[in-house]
Amino acid sequence: MLKIEKLSVRYGGILALNEVDVEVKQGDSVLLVGSNGAGKSSLINTIIGLVPNAGGRIVFDGKDLSGVPCASRARLGIGYSPEGRRVFNSLTVTENILSGSLSIPMAEARKNLDWLLRTFPLLAERANQPANQLSGGEQQIVAIARAAVTMPKLLLLDEPFLGLAPVWIGRVSQAIRELIGRGTTILMTEQMARPALKLVDRAYVMRGGEIRRSGTVAEIRDEALTEEYL
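^ thats the sequence. predicted structure below, dont judge the formating
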């Protein structure tokens, strides 16, 4: 579904990604793990079109994304939950979720919203509450639901555990498991390897803008856990 080949990204004279290769097949759940500054968010931002690539290419669902703007990438079926949640504080929970549905018809968005409210009771309980009244963990579930409301072919989760207490890491993990169980293909980045590795089939270890190792969770667990503490 997603194939990244020899991808390089520069910020001015700084090389942020150096010939990165990543593949995510349909139905996969894949982790990009690495310490802060490893290049994880740069890779995600390049996939969604916020950052131009200096070399290589990104192919999604058979289509080369070179020159395809952000909004069009969303319409192709790429959902994105950003690092730091970035919910709209003045909007209610429901309004926040529906704000991510602009690329699909409203009838379809409402149907998907109904599934999200049934699956994640917190969203139904807080449906009419402004997002700025929620805890960080609650906001993270709202951000994931906003990214998932289109039921995208590929869901990108950038640092979903950032700043969360252990109890909320568990609840956010369960939300991600529900989406995986529905058949959603997921590519997530995370510094906290230990809980993230419990959610995925495969992982890539990143350091210094390069892929240092990849494989199944069993194959790369020790190195991924080492990266968590670097």
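Residues 28 and 185 are 5 Å apart (CA to CA).
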